[in-house]
Amino acid sequence: KIAQWLGKMGWTPKTNKNLKTYKRPFSNPIIEPILIKKVAAFNQISKTHAAIAVEQLTQHLNNPSPILGNEQFLNLLSTHVTLTIDGDDKDIYFIDFENIWENDFIVTTQYTVRGAKEVRTDIVLLVNGIPLVPIEAKQRAKKGTNWMEGVRQFDTYEQRADKYYMSHLFGVAC
After folding, report:
1. Pairing mode of beta strands 105-114, 172-173
2. 57: closest CA among 34, 75, 31?
3. Beta partners for residue 88, in sequence order
4. How many Cβ atoms sit within 10 Å of the Cβ of residue 162?
5. Residue in 91, 57, 93 with CA at minimum distance from that of residue 166
6. 79: part of which helix (H) or strand (E)?
7. Residue 144's pLDDT band (boundaries 50, 70, 90)?
8. How many CA atoms lie within 13 A of 173 on its CB side?
9. 3-state secondary structure string, the chain?
10. CA distance 105 to 128
């Protein structure tokens, strides 16, 4: 129901089958082909330069400290990186905050990321291919389960799939 509701708000619902076309390795939480395409489009640069900018962003997912990696990743995501293109410095943005609907908004279910162990999130909101908001939705009808179970699951992300932990903004448990 949440995914359908978000679809009405402008998020594009996509199934795992739809997302397989991007050939994302499960060890990478980001769907890089989407991010590179969007970065190239709204920064008006080549896909080659966009890939270099994306690499500068995603290098922070290799930080040995997940909390510091998350901070550095989100700092660049909310600001920019600077590339020298044809002798000129150009600020490259990963989210178009000026023209918000130029971004790619996807909602999907059962999003899988592998690190030391596998994490499969009930619902994920991706902005330009970046899984910014994981949502753990628990069934009220299931005995002994409530939204706190979702909070406990978020607690394990850092150990189970640190790159996924580093690439998200905040989690929702409901």
Report:
1. unpaired
2. 75
3. 85
4. 23
5. 57
6. none
7. low
8. 11
9. CHHHHHHHCCCEECCHHHHHHHCCCCCCCCCHHHHHHHHHHHHCCCHHHHHHHHHHHHHHHHCCCHHHHHHHHHHHHHCCEEEEECCEEEEECCCCCCCHHHCCEEEEEEEEEECCCEEEEEEEEEECCEEEEEEECCCCCCCCCCHHHHHHHHHHHHHHCHHHHHCCCCCEEC
10. 6
| Lookup result for tokens 């400290």 | 65
- The burial class, CB within 10 Å (0-12 / 13-18 / 19+), for 88 is exposed
pLDDT in tens, 22-78: 999 999 999 999 999 999 999 999 999 999 999 999 999 999 999 999 999 999 999
